[in-house]
Amino acid sequence: MRTFHPFVLSALMALPISETAQADVGQITVTGEASIIASPDIAIVSLGVITTGDNAVAAMAANAAEMTKVIERLKASGIADTDLQTSNLQLYPNQPRASKSLSGQEGDFTAANQLQLRVRALDQLGAILDGAISDGANSLQGVSFDLAQPRGLQDEARAAAVADAAAKAKILAEAAGVKLGKITAITDGGNLGGGVASYRMTSAKIPVEAGQITISQSVSVSFEIAE
User: What's the mean per-residue pLDDT of the chain?
Assistant: First the structure.
């Protein structure tokens, strides 16, 4: 049988209930949201060159020649080396043509080289796309818009989302006939929205509309219910 020293037993009996068992505190948890509309200052473009050849070497050689011209034109247009990145490179055989399959010869090959670039001078975007297509780019996978430095606006939206959460919590507390206590937890769950490009392929300068992007932020905030 376990025994306690009289002094230890006396100390345990003297402890107040609040120190031995913490009572659950009621809470109100809400989600705050905020959005900021901004004009983008950078475009992300995915374009490439697709070529074919009677064999793998010929297909890749033709592709390399065309892509070299495209890259040289992009750099001459002011695109920095750090804003150019190869995103996909493929080489694969096509279905053999009937005449070649009968003679046992190899079918045609296709080579594809995809390049992702960031354009920081949006007023030159249409001309840059037109120049790349004129030089051999025959694959355009998409154009999107963004902010080069989004952090300031993200923080602004984040602060507005916290204020929105506080306003919602106040409404709920008043409706329930209770008072709000201190904040017990804040969880950041926001994200950065992006814009969608509008463009069409033409032989002249390609028209592109940057539009606007929306920066959205959400936070989850928990408040104690004051007694």
Answer: 81
